[in-house]
Design brief:
The protein is an all-alpha fold. About 80% of the residues lie in helices and about 0% in strands. The chain contains 10 helices and no strands.
């Protein structure tokens, strides 16, 4: 059964993942042009972009645990998932810089130093920049496999920073950021507990 699932996944083109990744952005654009963003549209744009980035970040983190636990491989889609994550994180930051802060750089610097959740968010975003820029075969060849893998392990830092950014940013009790922070913690813990992929094939007969 697992082999059949993986065979079916191999027939899915990577561009289909990119197409699916564009759906939340298309919905956001629709809501912008139809007035469906509520009383504070700037904040809604920021939040939805940031949350979508976090969801794709979690999706990328889940690829390896899924393989190890179930044998289902989404490895060929992981790079696309990571770049889509960055594609939402970048406009999330730009929305804050341009729409919220109005390019007031001094005020932005003071806010980042005064509000810890902004520091967490900026730290996570800087890591995502490094990962996105090097998410290509040319960077892999130039850096060498070992150095490239070490760099991309920084995603295990970016994810909890992003979760803390959301948790500290909320002003009322919300379940969603707590839930997703717990999911990130479980995914990171699973990498320590489950070191090797489980075998999903029958051993060969002697």
């Amino acid at each position: 059964m697992i082999r059949g699932v993986n065979n079916a996944l191999r027939r899915i083109p990577v561009w289909a993942v990119w197409l699916a990744g564009a759906v939340p952005f298309a919905v956001l654009l629709w809501d912008i042009f139809t007035g469906g963003l509520g009383v504070d549209p700037v904040q809604e744009v920021e939040h939805r972009l940031g949350q979508t980035a976090l969801y794709f970040l979690i999706g990328g983190l889940a690829v390896t645990p899924l393989l190890r636990l179930t044998g289902v491989s989404l490895m060929r889609f992981r790079r696309a998932i990571g770049v889509i994550c960055f594609a939402y994180a970048l406009p999330h930051i730009l929305a804050w810089v341009v729409l919220d802060m109005g390019l007031l750089w001094g005020q932005m610097a003071r806010d980042i130093l005064k509000r810890p959740y902004l520091l967490f968010g900026m730290g996570s975003f800087l890591i995502l920049i490094a990962l996105a820029v090097t998410s290509n075969n040319l960077s892999l060849r130039r850096m060498g496999g070992q150095a490239w893998r070490r760099l991309h392990k920084l995603v295990y830092v970016a994810a909890p920073l992003a979760a803390m950014h959301w948790l500290w940013a909320i002003k009322v009790n919300e379940i969603a950021p707590i839930f997703w922070a717990a999911v990130i913690a479980l995914l990171l813990a699973s990498r320590l507990v489950i070191r090797r992929p489980m075998s999903w094939t029958r051993p060969a007969r002697a």
